[in-house]
C-alpha cells in the first residue's frame, strides 16, 4: 500500500514514471535476478554501464524505501519495493482511461497481479554483467530467445513482456540504427521492416547529429500513456519502434501471438499476469543469499 501510494503520487506528477519503473525492474531481474542490484550506485556497478544509462525512476523507489523504513523498519527489501512498484506502475496507467470514459470502461480493470514478496537484496552489482544479459535492439529473435530462455522464459514470454513497450519513451539513439545519414546530412531509412511514413515522422522528431540526448519519442505512438494492447496493433502496422519489436511480427514463431494480442486485450492481460510473475521470480535471493538493505543510493 505504501509503495502503491508513492508510485501513484509520483506518476501523477510525472507521467513518465510508470515506464521508467517497469523498465528498471526488467533490467534488475535480468542481471543477477530480481535483487535490486540495478539500484546500487558507485564505480563499476550495473548502473554505470552504458546499457543502463537511460534508466530512471530511482528516486521513486528511494521515496518508497524512506516511507517504509519509517513505518516498518528493516522489513521490506529494495528488491521487493522495485517489484511492487513495477507491478503498480502497470496497474496505475490503466485506470486513466477508465477514469476518463468511466461509464463505458468502469469494469475494464487493468492487469491486477498478485506477486509474492520476500526477495532479498543482492550484494553484487557489476557493470560487466549487464551486456551479456540485457537484450540489444539489434538482436535477432534467436538471440533474444536465448537470453530469455537462460532466465527460464519462453518465446511467448518474450512476445508478452515486450508488450511493456505499450508505455514509455525512448531516446533517438535507441533506434537510429534503422536509419543512415545520407550525403546531404539527412537520415534515410535502411530498415525496410519499418513503415515509411512513421519513419519520416521519427526523423522529424530526432534532430540529426544532436549531441543532446534529451529528445525522446513515445514507444507506442497510439496510446503512450495507457497500458493496453495497442503495442501489438502498432506492430501490425509496421510501426514497432525497435528492430527487436519488428522482429516479433516478422517471424512465424511469434507472429501468431502478436495477432492474438492485437485482437484480444483480455488475452494479453491474462498472459501478462503470468509472464510478469515469471519475470518477478527470476533469480530471487532468499535467506543468507542476500540482505534487506537500508539504503541503496548513498548520494544522488
Ligand atoms: C526483449 C527485448 C527488449 C529490448 C531490445 C528493449 C529495448 C528497449 C529500449 C532500447 C528502450 C528505450 C530506452 C531509451 O532510449 O531510453 C526501451 C524502453 C522501455 N522498455 Fe524495453 N526492451 C525489451 C524488452 C522489454 C521488457 C521485457 C520490458 C518490461 C517488461 C521492457 C520495458 C520497457 C519500458 C517500460 C520502456 C520505456 C522506458 C521509459 O519510458 O523510460 N522492455 N526498451
Ligand atoms: Ca538484479
Ligand atoms: Ca499503450
Automatic annotation (TrEMBL):
<keyword id="KW-0106">Calcium</keyword>
<keyword id="KW-0575">Peroxidase</keyword>
<dbReference type="InterPro" id="IPR000823">
    <property type="entry name" value="Peroxidase_pln"/>
</dbReference>
<keyword id="KW-0349">Heme</keyword>
<feature type="domain" description="Plant heme peroxidase family profile">
    <location>
        <begin position="1"/>
        <end position="300"/>
    </location>
</feature>
<comment type="similarity">
    <text>Belongs to the peroxidase family. Classical plant (class III) peroxidase subfamily.</text>
</comment>
<keyword id="KW-1015">Disulfide bond</keyword>
<dbReference type="InterPro" id="IPR010255">
    <property type="entry name" value="Haem_peroxidase_sf"/>
</dbReference>
<comment type="function">
    <text>Removal of H(2)O(2), oxidation of toxic reductants, biosynthesis and degradation of lignin, suberization, auxin catabolism, response to environmental stresses such as wounding, pathogen attack and oxidative stress.</text>
</comment>
<keyword id="KW-0479">Metal-binding</keyword>
<comment type="similarity">
    <text>Belongs to the peroxidase family. Ascorbate peroxidase subfamily.</text>
</comment>
<keyword id="KW-0964">Secreted</keyword>
<dbReference type="InterPro" id="IPR019793">
    <property type="entry name" value="Peroxidases_heam-ligand_BS"/>
</dbReference>
<protein>
    <recommendedName>
        <fullName>Peroxidase</fullName>
        <ecNumber>1.11.1.7</ecNumber>
    </recommendedName>
</protein>
<dbReference type="InterPro" id="IPR002016">
    <property type="entry name" value="Haem_peroxidase"/>
</dbReference>
<dbReference type="Pfam" id="PF00141">
    <property type="entry name" value="peroxidase"/>
</dbReference>
<dbReference type="InterPro" id="IPR033905">
    <property type="entry name" value="Secretory_peroxidase"/>
</dbReference>
<keyword id="KW-0325">Glycoprotein</keyword>
<keyword id="KW-0376">Hydrogen peroxide</keyword>
<keyword id="KW-0560">Oxidoreductase</keyword>
<keyword id="KW-0408">Iron</keyword>
Amino acid at each position: 500500500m505504501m509503495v502503491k501510494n508513492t508510485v501513484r503520487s509520483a506518476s501523477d506528477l510525472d507521467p513518465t514514471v510508470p515506464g521508467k519503473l517497469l523498465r528498471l525492474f526488467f533490467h534488475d531481474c535480468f542481471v543477477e535476478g530480481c535483487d535490486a542490484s540495478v539500484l546500487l550506485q558507485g564505480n563499476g556497478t550495473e548502473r554505470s554501464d552504458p546499457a543502463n544509462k537511460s534508466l530512471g525512476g530511482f528516486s521513486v523507489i528511494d521515496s518508497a524505501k524512506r516511507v517504509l523504513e519509517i513505518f516498518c523498519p528493516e522489513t521490506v527489501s529494495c528488491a521487493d519495493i522495485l517489484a511492487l512498484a513495477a507491478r503498480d506502475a502497470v496497474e496505475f496507467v490503466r485506470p486513466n482511461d477508465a477514469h476518463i470514459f468511466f461509464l463505458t470502461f468502469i469494469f475494464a480493470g487493468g492487469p491486477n497481479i498478485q506477486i509474492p514478496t520476500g526477495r532479498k537484496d543482492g550484494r553484487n552489482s557489476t557493470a560487466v554483467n549487464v551486456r551479456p544479459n540485457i537484450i540489444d535492439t539489434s538482436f535477432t529473435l534467436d538471440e533474444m530467445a536465448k537470453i530469455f530462455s537462460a532466465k527460464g522464459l519462453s518465446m511467448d514470454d518474450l512476445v508478452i513482456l515486450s508488450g511493456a513497450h505499450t508505455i514509455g519513451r525512448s531516446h533517438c539513439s535507441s533506434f537510429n540504427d534503422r536509419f543512415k545519414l545520407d550525403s546531404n546530412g539527412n537520415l534515410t531509412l535502411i530498415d525496410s521492416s519499418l513503415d515509411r511514413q512513421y519513419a519520416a515522422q521519427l526523423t522529424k522528431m530526432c534532430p540529426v547529429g544532436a549531441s543532446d540526448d534529451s529528445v525522446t519519442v513515445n514507444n507506442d505512438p497510439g496510446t503512450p500513456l495507457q497500458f493496453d494492447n495497442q503495442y501489438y496493433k502498432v506492430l501490425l502496422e509496421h510501426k514497432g519502434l525497435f528492430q527487436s519489436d519488428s522482429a516479433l511480427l516478422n517471424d512465424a514463431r511469434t507472429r501468431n501471438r502478436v495477432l492474438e494480442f492485437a485482437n484480444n486485450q483480455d488475452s494479453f492481460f491474462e498472459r501478462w499476469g503470468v509472464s510478469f510473475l515469471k519475470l518477478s521470480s527470476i533469480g530471487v535471493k532468499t535467506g543468507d543469499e542476500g540482505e534487506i538493505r537500508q539504503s541503496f543510493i548513498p548520494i544522488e
